[in-house]
Specification:
164 residues, alpha/beta, Glutaredoxin, 7-stranded mixed beta sheet, 45% helix, 21% strand, globular, disordered N terminus
Length: 164
């Protein structure tokens, strides 16, 4: 019985690792921010490159319907308060309309400057289909992190970005 449990445990670990490795490999850190387009809530089309690069940028890829995004938004605001104007904190909402974003923030005390990923190209460029996803970019426009982590991890990455 013990041997069967051991074999089962090894098989489960192998399956988990086989799924985790491709996901980890997808994160292409230290690459330039992709030149994909976003739309401001006012309707202006901008390149993501235009939004990132003058100073470290924290991009929060989210959606108005995402429950985890709503829960994690408090950490996004905490980071914005901690670093102030030393970093840029921006949201990129997945296929939401300006009206949906306005309605979302009308119910909340704090707001996040958000752009719209109208066709999913931002999420595709960062090889994710999950919300939320965080992208941290240094002041030269190089991606330091793309994925999901903790407030502490984001804080450390932003501190490192400010030193470089």
């Amino acid at each position: 019985m013990i041997r069967k449990n051991l074999i089962f445990s090894v098989l489960v670990c192998a399956v988990v690792v086989s799924f985790a490795l491709p996901v980890a490999a997808k994160t292409k850190e230290n690459r330039a921010v992709p030149g994909v387009k976003v739309v401001s809530v006012e309707g202006d089309t901008l390149s993501l490159v235009e939004l990132c690069g003058e100073k470290p940028t924290f991009l929060y890829l989210w959606a108005t319907w995402c429950k985890v995004c709503s829960k994690d938004m408090k950490d996004v605001f905490k980071l914005r308060e901690k670093f102030g104007d030393k970093i840029e904190v921006l949201g990129v909402a997945y296929k939401n309309s300006p009206e949906e974003i306005a309605k979302y923030f009308s119910k909340r005390e704090k707001k996040l400057k958000s752009y719209i990923d109208a066709d999913g190209s931002v999420f595709e460029a960062f090889e994710t289909n999950a919300t939320p996803t965080v992208v941290i970019v240094d002041g030269s426009g190089k991606v330091l992190f793309s994925g999901y982590g903790s407030y502490r991890k984001y804080r450390k990455l932003l501190e490192r970005a400010l030193k470089s």
